[in-house]
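My main concern about presentation is that the manuscript never shows what a single data entry looks like. For the editor and my fellow referees, an illustration may be useful. For illustration, here is how one protein appears when written out as sequence plus structure tokens:

***
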Amino acid sequence: MTPIFEKTLLIATIGMAGIFLFMAVFYLLIRALDKLMPFQEKKPAEKWSEETATEKEEEEP
């Protein structure tokens, strides 16, 4: 093999390893954020407050 071709393979290998390393770190970061702040589906506050307000008004008189 020529020295230029060997140098090119080395650069390509380092580049591919860097991409896979970045993807692994990014994946682990996403997993950690998902564990720290899990998604919780909530009822909209406006709708909930309107429903409870009408229920309280009906019960009071």
In short: The chain has one domain: 3-59.
